[in-house]
């Protein structure tokens, strides 16, 4: 998704300033400190998407209390700075980007930094930090250059992952596969309440109502996004999403779907290896589930720079190769 399209989509809801903040156009390295001692803010996971040959979009949404009824995720009603790093290796020895963006309450403290200047057809690793909390490490991959002709494309696709109809174990398998990308064909979320569900679990009444306003939609997204297999699949591969008819009522009413931006892949790869990831039954689950943890910051000392440590200062760095 281009910057102009992303901004266009955001203008109708949160306003220009907030969208600019969320996409990383604002470097706020000296203000908007994270709330101290409020718990893990990465309960909703991390993700990358819309891969291109020279970049990718990163995502996370801060939520120390993902099931807060007001949909605000337990976050304060003020902006919070989030730093991020992109590296060629999972130990972050070779960092190619380090910068920060501001997560605003208008966007539910979600961020979508757009990374550019990367190498084509290359694996990268990324992570976020706010305050002393560091997110799990994500893996992503750029697409091949448009003028190249790769011999194969490895992808998986998924659709219709209704939480109330089964478990997400297929996403665990997807996370372990060696894929170039994941395509979600739609219906990432359903708006119906989940009091009646095929998981055989008792859910909190806050999830029983039909999804009809922003707070309830954010709560419903939290219900889905805290699923560990789904988080693992997001963290392992870049995703390309298409709009599903259940994402909002107007879309369902018109029964139309819209396609996402193409990823720059050749139209006729010589071979493909695809797998599907429909929801399926599996072992136990309870609600609210245990959330994935963040890790504490390990400061980099002046004398040594241990793998995985964070330097104190944040700012833009030249892209490494
Ligand atoms: Fe569906």
Brief digest:
The chain has 321 residues and is α/β, with parallel strands linked by helices. Helix content is 16%, strand content 23%.
Measured by DSSP, the beta-strand proportion falls in 15-25%
What is the total tally of β strands? 14
Rg of Cα set = 19 Å
**Global morphology:** globular
Number of helices: 6
Helix content: 10-25%
Structural class: alpha/beta
Mean pLDDT: 77
CATH superfamily of the largest domain: Purple acid phosphatase-like, N-terminal
CATH fold-level name of the largest domain: Immunoglobulin-like
Spell the H/E element sequence: HHEEEEEEEEEEHEHHEHEE
Please tell me the total number of domains: 2
Distance between the termini: 24 Å
Ranges with pLDDT <50 over ≥5 residues? 1-21, 24-28, 251-293, 296-308, 311-321
* Small molecules (ligands, ions, cofactors) in the structure: fe (ii) ion
CATH class of the largest domain: Mainly Beta
Largest sheet descriptor = 8 strands, mixed
């Amino acid at each position: 998704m281009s910057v102009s399209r992303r901004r266009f989509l955001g203008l109708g809801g949160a306003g220009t300033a907030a969208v600019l903040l969320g996409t990383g156009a604002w470097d706020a390295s000296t203000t908007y400190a994270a709330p101290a001692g409020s718990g893990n803010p990465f309960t909703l996971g991390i993700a990358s998407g819309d891969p291109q040959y020279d970049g990718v979009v990163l995502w996370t949404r801060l939520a120390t209390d993902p099931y807060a009824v007001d949909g605000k995720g337990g976050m304060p009603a003020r902006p919070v700075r989030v730093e991020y790093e992109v590296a060629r290796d999972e130990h972050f020895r070779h960092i190619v980007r380090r910068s920060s963006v501001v997560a605003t309450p208008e966007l539910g403290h979600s961020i979508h930094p757009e990374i550019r200047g990367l190498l084509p057809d290359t694996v990268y690793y990324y992570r976020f930090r706010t305050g002393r909390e560091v997110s799990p490490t994500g893996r992503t991959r750029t697409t091949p250059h448009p003028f190249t002709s790769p011999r194969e494309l490895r992808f998986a696709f998924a659709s219709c992952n209704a939480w109330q109809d089964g478990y997400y174990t297929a996403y665990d398998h997807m996370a372990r596969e060696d894929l170039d990308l994941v395509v979600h064909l739609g219906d990432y979320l359903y708006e119906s309440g989940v009091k009646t569900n095929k998981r055989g679990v008792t859910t909190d009444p806050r999830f029983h109502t039909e999804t009809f306003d922003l707070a309830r939609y954010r709560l419903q997204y939290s219900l889905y996004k805290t699923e560990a297999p789904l988080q693992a699949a997001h963290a392992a591969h870049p995703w390309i999403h298409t709009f599903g008819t259940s994402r909002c009522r107007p879309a369902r009413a018109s029964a139309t779907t819209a396609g996402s931006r193409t990823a720059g892949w050749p139209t006729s790869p010589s071979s493909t290896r695809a797998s599907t990831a429909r929801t399926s039954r599996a072992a136990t689950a309870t609600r609210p589930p245990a959330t994935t943890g963040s890790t504490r910051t390990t400061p980099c000392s002046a004398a040594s720079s241990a793998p995985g440590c964070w330097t104190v200062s944040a700012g833009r760095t030249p892209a490494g190769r």
